[in-house]
Automatic annotation (TrEMBL):
<feature type="domain" description="ABC transmembrane type-1">
    <location>
        <begin position="42"/>
        <end position="320"/>
    </location>
</feature>
<feature type="transmembrane region" description="Helical">
    <location>
        <begin position="177"/>
        <end position="196"/>
    </location>
</feature>
<dbReference type="InterPro" id="IPR017871">
    <property type="entry name" value="ABC_transporter-like_CS"/>
</dbReference>
<dbReference type="Pfam" id="PF00005">
    <property type="entry name" value="ABC_tran"/>
</dbReference>
<feature type="domain" description="ABC transporter">
    <location>
        <begin position="354"/>
        <end position="588"/>
    </location>
</feature>
<dbReference type="InterPro" id="IPR036640">
    <property type="entry name" value="ABC1_TM_sf"/>
</dbReference>
<dbReference type="InterPro" id="IPR003593">
    <property type="entry name" value="AAA+_ATPase"/>
</dbReference>
<feature type="compositionally biased region" description="Pro residues">
    <location>
        <begin position="612"/>
        <end position="623"/>
    </location>
</feature>
<dbReference type="Pfam" id="PF00664">
    <property type="entry name" value="ABC_membrane"/>
</dbReference>
<feature type="region of interest" description="Disordered">
    <location>
        <begin position="593"/>
        <end position="667"/>
    </location>
</feature>
<protein>
    <submittedName>
        <fullName>ATP-binding cassette subfamily B protein</fullName>
    </submittedName>
</protein>
<keyword id="KW-0472">Membrane</keyword>
<feature type="transmembrane region" description="Helical">
    <location>
        <begin position="33"/>
        <end position="52"/>
    </location>
</feature>
<keyword id="KW-0547">Nucleotide-binding</keyword>
<feature type="compositionally biased region" description="Polar residues">
    <location>
        <begin position="655"/>
        <end position="667"/>
    </location>
</feature>
<feature type="transmembrane region" description="Helical">
    <location>
        <begin position="152"/>
        <end position="171"/>
    </location>
</feature>
<feature type="compositionally biased region" description="Low complexity">
    <location>
        <begin position="624"/>
        <end position="633"/>
    </location>
</feature>
Length: 667
């Protein structure tokens, strides 16, 4: 199962810097809350860790004077001690109140902005990344903001600001106490930094392993029916166990490195710092300040060495937060290539005609699919795109939707270059039914209304009726309110296609793209949908991709694509008469018996297809056994039946006839 591996290089410095910048911008955006959230806990720590012990040191100094210690002289210190702790706690609570809001508002904004970043990505991006891994990354990007801010507040600002206060107090007693403390802190940082950097790589390996576990779990859950169909439960469980074991191994390696390498270096330095503080306090203590100075030195040095000892833990928390956040920001280093223009043109197409002018396109790192492709689709024309698999039919529809940008040439709608339009404006012109209709884990009503969210229930039901969705929807437990399951698993393939067609009806767009829109329907269901589709295409520009030629034989014009080139164009009857690539495909799909009835599934009967069907938009559907994919040879003999006259009958020419064209030149 190595194909689901998402192992990648360690996020570079730029990804970590970008994550820090994003988090810093959040703090700046919330500065009115962030400033008290960062500083007030530090002020509270000053009271608890430095002011209160200083009062105790004063009391100890008085007791050491030899006059003893009575309540009267000690009362101000006792009251001051209690008031300091109460005030520190109050300041802490206010700071915590602000911090809670910084965390919550920041995470909310990062969750939203992270999703916005993913929505702006190219379609190809999602082909290269697992949904489970992306889900973990984008959610962790928001969640880790809380860890980052809490660590900065409690462990960094909450320790360094009080440490500065403590250094000022120590300086008032003996400057050497400050010098010794700073030297030991600097020595600890210099000695530990190389080890911590090494550990950063181990932490990334750990996070990448966790992402691989998440990706595999999501991949397995989405394809659970396939796993069961191939009795692969044990195999997938073993793969999951292997990935979890790899995650455990890398996690322990990063933890052990911190414990056995980093902490074992810092611990002796912390002890040495405490000892040094006592020695300096004893040696340099002034007259009458011996006990007080020793207590202050011991307490303040202990607080400082706690920071030194926690240096690894602080870095570890920041490292974990930033490494995981960088797993997401790394995805942002390669910006999307399909972008709205800086100064988009307003949507002002004169009509809905589509033109491909000298279009060249290739997927990244692959050979070109189209080179100088020329294709003209007049407004209101119904065009069938046919040909063998891999010819570029679906790619053509995706380029019209601008899922990818072309490498050369232009694509025009009504004379406007689609690259000069906002993507939302472009796609508002198009209703698209893909080969594999995508369903959300939402209600049936929501899935249909996705095409037009403001549609009324009456409009949704009318669209469903036109696509014959109501025939099965009313039988569902909650009717149109029934959840269809992830990717629509509760619906059959044919039912999903009907829902997708209902979306197209509800969309009511002037351009219609149908990519194998009825391929999952049985003959009876297809017959029910034919009339609705024909009415839907009426008055619209339609591009219909089909492998079953009978579904497009009644189109105004057929375009035969092969290896990214237009090899033939014309009506069904004209292409049969030309006896070229299309005629051979038709022979293969009809078993070579062209004299038998072969009515188109969409539109009027195919001219020249022989007698046997009443004219009109919904002629009888051909025998499914004869409707094979064009790559399958149902009859190895490419020659037409001897008793079939392939010549065109001018009395049966379609309303929008086109001359037959072969080759790859301009239309």
């Amino acid at each position: 199962m190595g194909t689901t591996d998402t192992r990648g290089p360690t996020p570079g410095r730029s990804a970590v810097v970008l994550a820090l910048r994003r988090y810093g911008l959040e703090l700046l955006r919330l500065r009115r809350l962030a400033l008290p959230a960062l500083l007030l806990p530090a002020v509270g720590n000053i009271g608890i860790r430095y002011v209160a012990p200083l009062l105790i040191a004063k009391l100890a100094g008085q007791a050491a004077d030899g006059n003893g210690l009575t309540l009267g002289p000690a009362l101000p210190y006792v009251l001051g001690f209690g008031a300091t702790l109460l005030l520190a706690e109050a300041v802490w609570r206010v700071g915590q109140h602000c911090l809670n809001r910084v965390d919550a508002l920041g995470m909310e904004h990062l969750y939203v902005s992270g999703m916005d970043e993913l929505l702006a990505k190219d379609a190809a991006f999602f082909h290269d990344n697992f949904a489970g891994s992306l889900t973990k990354r984008v959610l962790s990007f928001g969640k880790r903001f809380e860890d980052f801010v809490d660590t900065v507040t409690y462990r960094i600002v909450g320790s360094l600001v009080p440490l500065v206060f403590g250094a000022v107090v120590l300086w008032s007693y003996e400057p050497m106490l400050v010098a010794g403390l700073l030297v030991m802190i600097a020595l600890t940082v210099v000695a530990a930094t190389p080890l911590i950097r090494r550990r950063q790589m181990l932490v990334h390996d750990r996070e990448a392993a966790i992402a691989r576990v998440s990706g595999h779990v999501a991949d397995a859950l989405v394809n659970m029916e396939t796993i069961r169909a191939f009795a692969a439960e044990r195999r997938e469980a073993d793969e999951h166990r292997s990935r979890v074991a790899d995650s455990r191994r890398l996690t322990l390696r990063s933890w052990d490195y911190g414990n056995l390498r980093v902490d074992t270096l810092i611990a002796p330095l912390s002890v040495l710092t405490n000892v040094l503080g006592l020695v300096v306090a004893i040696v340099f203590g002034g007259p009458g300040q011996g006990v007080e100075e020793v207590v202050v030195a011991f307490t303040y040095y202990s607080n400082a060495t706690q920071i030194m000892f926690e240096f690894n833990q602080i870095y570890r928390r920041l490292e974990s937060s930033m490494t995981e956040a960088a797993q997401f920001t790394e995805l942002l280093l390669d910006p999307p290539t399909v972008l709205d223009p800086a100064e988009p043109e307003p949507l002002a197409a004169r009509d809905t005609g589509v033109r491909f002018e000298a279009v060249t396109f290739a997927h990244a790192g692959a050979k070109p699919i189209f080179e100088k492709l020329e294709l003209d689709v007049p407004a209101g024309a119904r065009i069938g795109l046919v040909g063998r698999s891999g010819g570029g039919k679906t790619t053509l529809t995706r380029l019209l939707l601008r899922m990818s940008d072309i490498d050369g040439g232009r694509i025009l709608i009504g004379g406007q270059d689609i690259s000069r339009l906002r993507q939302s404006d472009l796609r508002s012109l198009i209703a698209y039914v893909p080969q594999d209709p995508a369903m959300f884990h939402r209600s049936l009503r929501d899935n249909i209304a996705f095409a037009r969210p403001g549609a009324t229930d009456e409009e949704i039901r009318a669209a469903a009726a036109a696509a014959h969705v109501t025939e099965f929807a009313d039988q569902l437990p909650e009717g149109f309110g029934t959840l269809v399951g992830e990717r629509g698993v509760k619906l059959s393939g044919g039912q999903r296609q009907r829902v997708a067609l209902a979306r197209a009806v509800l969309r009511d767009a002037p351009i219609l793209l149908l990519d194998e829109a009825t391929s999952a329907l049985d003959s009876e269901s297809e017959l029910l949908v034919q009339d609705a589709l024909w009415r839907l295409m009426d008055g619209r520009t339609a591009l219909v991709v089909a492998h079953r030629l009978s579904t497009v034989a009644g189109m105004d014009r057929l375009v035969v694509l092969d290896r990214g080139s237009v090899v033939e164009e014309g009506s069904h009857k004209e292409l049969l008469a030309a006896n070229g690539a299309y005629a051979k495909l038709w022979q293969h799909q009809s078993g070579g018996f062209l004299g038998e009835s072969s009515e188109p599934a969409l539109g009027r009967p195919a001219p020249g297809a022989g007698p046997g069907g009443p004219p009109g938009p919904a002629g009888p559907t051909p025998d499914p056994a004869l409707d094979q994919a064009p790559d399958q040879d149902a009859n190895p003999d490419p020659d037409p039946a001897p008793d079939q006259d392939p010549s065109p009958d001018p009395d049966q020419a379609p309303e929008t006839s086109s001359h037959v064209r072969t080759g790859t030149g301009a239309t």
